[in-house]
Structure formats: structure tokens, C-alpha cells
Amino acid sequence: VMKAVLFCAGMVLVCALRVKADVPVQKDFDINKIVGKWRLVAAASDSEWFKTKKETLKGATTVFTLNESGNLDVRANHQRPEGCVEMNRTYSTTEQPGRFTYTNPEYGSVNDIRVVDTNYDDYALMYFYTTKDIETFHKVKLYGRTLDLKPEIVDKFKQFCITQGFTQDTMFILPKNDSLMTNI
Ligand SMILES: *[C@@H]1O[C@H](CO)[C@@H](O)[C@H](O)[C@H]1NC(C)=O
Ligand SMILES: *[C@@H]1O[C@H](CO)[C@@H](O)[C@H](O)[C@H]1NC(C)=O
Ligand SMILES: *[C@@H]1O[C@H](CO)[C@@H](O)[C@H](O)[C@H]1NC(C)=O
Known about the structure:
The chain is α+β, with helices and mostly antiparallel strands. It has one domain: Lipocalin (Beta Barrel), CATH 2.40.128. It is 23% helix and 42% strand. It is built from 4 helices and 9 strands, in the order H-H-E-H-E-E-E-E-E-E-E-H-E. The protein has helices at residues 2-20, 31-34, 48-53, 151-163; strands at residues 36-45, 59-66, 72-80, 83-93, 99-104, 109-118, 123-132, 135-144, 171-173. Strands 1-2-3-4-5-6-7-8 form an 8-stranded antiparallel barrel. The termini are far apart. 20% of the residues are buried. The protein binds 2-acetamido-2-deoxy-beta-D-glucopyranose (NAG) (3 copies). One 2-acetamido-2-deoxy-beta-D-glucopyranose is lined by residues 67, 69, 71, 73, 90, 92. Residues 1-21 form the signal peptide. This is Lipocalin/cytosolic fatty-acid binding domain-containing protein. Residues 35-178 form the Lipocalin/cytosolic fatty-acid binding domain. Keywords: Signal. Belongs to the calycin superfamily. Lipocalin family.
């Protein structure tokens, strides 16, 4: 009987871990190595805005810096048809290294942000889970230190998106054109 109980407890634990491991976080995440400038290489989102507007996104640059309180300050510049849109945000650290939260004061949305996979020197794959009232959105961003990422890395992005249930029409690879990038 004891053995059966232990077995069941083990199964529950395995199931709980599986749910938690659904969206992985970079092992031994080092916040000091993620700082600096990144180019947006690819993105996926299930928001209606993204589905209809993604093709108009020409380039985006993001700079991460370590905030004096240990959080991640995010300065992003997106090139959109209406011009450059600059955003400053702070991603707050959580108990789990590589996982952050951000509440958008303008829209009242709450974001659960994870660095899924990075080697710090070339690429960073990030996952965003946004809750606003009763709506939820998922977003994936592939950043590169340069726009020239190995095809394997872009495949990694596509594969991760498929695993998370994104369809082809919700994914977008940005044009590989440095002159379309904005500098900050
Ligand atoms: C640092 O992070 C805090 C939140 O933890 C934020 O209120 C503050 O504005 C940030 N500092 C800078 C320089 O952005
Ligand atoms: C973002 O922060 C930088 C300096 O940290 C500042 O120069 C810039 O004006 C800010 N942009 C916005 C849109 O707040
Ligand atoms: C890159 O973008 C610039 C500015 O729109 C354009 O003039 C140039 O032809 C583009 N280059 C390529 C290789 O698409």
C-alpha cells in the first residue's frame, strides 16, 4: 500500500513539474550577460493587432540595462509605418532567474516574461504571456546581437512557436536589412 501511495505521489509531482516545464526558462540564467543591444529577428503573437500589422514591422532594437534595483530596464525602438515608436519599461525580476513580470500602466496588462533560451552572445528567445482583464495573449520574440542568425536558431524559434501552438500566420521573420534598423 505504501509503495502505491509513493507511486501516486510521484506521479502527481511528475505531472506538476510537466505543467511548470511547459515553457522552459534558460538554465542558470545570468542577468549580467543579457544586457546590451539586441535586434529583433523574428516574432510571433496571437493578438489581432499583430496578425494584421506584422508585415509592416521593419525593424526593432532593444537595449537591456541592469536597473539600480536589480531589475531589467528595457529601452525599445520599433520602426512602424507611422514612424519610430520608443518604449521604456522595467521588467521586474522574480524568484526564478530568467523570469520577469511587467505591468503596463497604460493598458493595465500584466506580463509574465521568460528568457526561454539564450547563449547571450548571439541569440535570445523570449516568451511573453499577457493577461488583460479576461483576455490572454502569447508572444514570442527572437532577438539577435546582429540580424544574421544561423538558420538553426531561426528554426529553433519556429519549432518553439509550433510547440506553443502558434500557427504560421502568427509568425513573422523581419527583413534582414540593417538600414531598416533603428539606433538607440
Ligand atoms: C528601476 O526599477 C524600478 C522598479 O523596480 C523602477 O521604479 C525605476 O524607475 C527603475 N529605474 C530606472 C532608472 O528606470
Ligand atoms: C527612454 O529613456 C531614455 C534614457 O534612459 C530617454 O532618453 C528617452 O527619452 C526615454 N524615452 C521615452 C519614450 O520615454
Ligand atoms: C534596405 O532598406 C533600405 C531603406 O528602406 C532600402 O533602400 C534598401 O534597398 C534595402 N536593402 C535591401 C537589401 O533590401
